[in-house]
Amino acid sequence: MAILSLKNVHKSFGNTQIIRGVSLDIEQGEKHAIIGPNGAGKSTLYHLISGLYRVTSGTIELRQQPIHNRAPYEISRLGLARSFQVTNIFPRLNVFENVRCALLWSHGFRYSFWHLLGRQGELNDSAMHVLDQIGLKDKARYPAGELAYAQQRALELGIAIASGAEVIMLDEPVAGMSHSEAENAVQLIRRITEGKTLIMVEHDMNIVFDVADRITVLVYGEVIASDVPAAIRGNPKVQEAYLGEVATSA
Amino acid sequence: MTLLRKLSVWVAYLAALLLLPQLFDSILAISVFNQMAIAIVFALSYNMLLGQGGMLSFGHAVYFGMGGFLAVHALLMLETETAHFSIIWIPLIGGLFGLLAAIFIGSFSTRKAGTVFAMISLGIGELIAASSLIFVDFFGGEAGISGDRTYGPTFFGIDFAQNVEVYYLASGWVFISTVFMYLFIQTPVGRMANAVRDNPVRAEFIGYSARHVRFISFCASGLFAGIAGGLFALNYEFITEENLNAATSGRVLLMAYIGGLGYFIGPIIGAVLLTLMNSLLSNYTELWMLYLGILFLLTVMFLPRGFAGFIMMHQLAWVRGKLRDLVVPYLMTGIPAVIFMLSLIALIELVHAEEASLHIYGLTLDPAAAGTWIALLLIATAALFGTRRSLPQLRAAWDTANHIPDEER
User: Fold this and answer.
1) A77: chain B residues, CB-CB within 8 Å
2) Does domain B16-304 have CATH number 2.20.25?
3) Is residue B314 classed exposed, middle or buried when 0-12, 13-18 and 19+ CB atoms within 10 A define those classes?
4) Is B204's CB within 8 Å of A71's CB?
5) Residues 6 or more apart from A94 whose CB is under 8 A from it?
6) Domain parsing of chain B, residue ranges
7) DSSP state, A94?
8) Which residues on B lie below 8 Å from A81 (Cβ)?
9) Domain spans of chain A, in order of start
10) Mean pLDDT per segment of 10 residues, for chain B of length 409 residues?
């Protein structure tokens, strides 16, 4: 049963069509990578699924429930979390607060102004647990904006996974990292998405083929292939459109 | 331990509020303290918007004024005996009306933060200020409306005829309001207000509508601004259009900003400072508004985190016991800087002087004599030179005091 299902999704900005009829089914527990050259519409697709943009036409369903054209916060509450390509944290809050804020809704606090955060033992323990997972426990009281880049990326991940969402979408999680940092990040991603559905946009092909169960190739707003890694590697259309370009430029 | 320390801060705050009139008991002092009490609640409520929630409002006086107007109407009802309750509840009535106004206006103004919010707040502020001259029955036109706080049942025998009695009532409300505004930051929605201020887009992806979070902060802020307005009504027993117009909105912005937006205590410092300037400095010079403007400019340029931020800057040096090393460099720069500013003020006053002689700093200066001007200019130049010369040493001392050796990192 597909946990996330896109049917004939279109998105235009004015006369410019960015997404041109994407249909895609992602199964529960799958590690799914979306790849494609720059400008293929990967980020737009992410924004459509997560509710930042409205679709021009087509439907998106999460667990058979339509989520297209709903507000990001509603989609988030249904159990879909995402990270961002550009580090997108709460810079003036400390690291602990960043994660704790991400936990609030799923712990049922809603818009409460009658609970004191300091007294919520369970909430605070969960926040510390997430910090432990992303390796930032000793930086808990640091202002998030002053962390090193790789640590900010880890925090970005932490915010995305904190709520315990079933579907986690990561947008270039290792972009801009050194080789060893990227390696650590991949291990971290594996660890924290264990048993969950992971969707990932990534440019590093080693990581993509390493992590993904299935790969979707997006070119000019259209899916040209969606298959297991081995089949994608052998697909001539993909090689022409994307891998070939990488091979020649490398 | 930390709980004990926090508690002792609050006890000290309450003690300071209650002991002030014991230390200074002149009529002027009590009147200044009453103004301070009102300003503290108002500035703290403004900080809920700007400092905590990232909403720059140019119309916060609307909620202050609305609360104040309803409070005076409540006083009038006590006077005509259409209602019967102790006036200690007047600030709460003001607060509830401020809240009501905030619910109504916030329902559409909190959709966006940033420029849109700022412009709407400005528009609403002008709208209400203009309509206060139109709806004369409620707002009383240009003269405003006035009441009398001595009606209604007495509170344990106190009829609040004396200003000092009003001060104790006000300080009670100040304390309660401060505690609740402080606690608000510690609640889920209070913390999310910070998150929305920092990054509204991201907040939406962790399950919170930035708009709803803003709306709740906005309403809470309106409530406390209304309480401040109610205190104003009790203290002055009248209120006019001036108390909800742009000038009052601007003043509360200055208070919060000069005090320091990022710190809870900042607006309190700002409120105390500006009230003192307003009521004391104005006795000495007609130009105090100019000096307030200069103070604001200097704060924006050199102390972007306000006076509270300036104090907090020294935390690291304090913890490391290096604060003493800064005293001499501070004096080396501070003394010429103060001389520079004093001579500049003398020059400004000289320009403004209408009489044949200007009395300043215990001196008598002659505005007509060229020598006065030349001497002041020379002193100012020398002092500026001295400030600039000593600045590198101060900077170096600062760096040393705040340097953490690598082995401690």
Assistant:
1) 207
2) no
3) middle
4) yes
5) A140, A141, A142, A143, A144
6) 16-304, 315-408
7) B
8) 205-206
9) 2-249
10) 86 95 92 96 97 96 97 95 92 97 97 95 95 92 92 86 93 98 97 97 96 98 98 96 94 95 94 92 86 91 92 86 87 92 89 80 82 90 93 89 67
Cβ of A92 within 8 Å of Cβ of B208? The answer is no
Chain A residue whose CA is closest to B188? A112
pLDDT tens digits along A20-45 = 999 999 999 999 999 998 889 999 99
- B2 vs A84, which has greater pLDDT? A84
Contact call for B194 and A159, based on CB within 8 A = no
pLDDT bucket at A250, cuts 50 / 70 / 90: very low
Q: Say how far apart CA B57 and CA A15 lie, in whole Å.
A: 38
How many CB atoms within 10 Å of residue B396?
Answer: 11
Residue count (chain B)? 409
Q: Residue A125 is encoded by which pair of tokens?
A: 């323990």
CA B255 from chain centre, in angstroms, equals 3
On whether the CB atoms of residues B316 and B402 are closer than 8 A, the answer is yes
Superfamily of domain A2-249, CATH level 4: P-loop containing nucleotide triphosphate hydrolases (3.40.50.300)
The pair of three-digit structure tokens given for residue B49, joined into one six-digit string = 């918007």
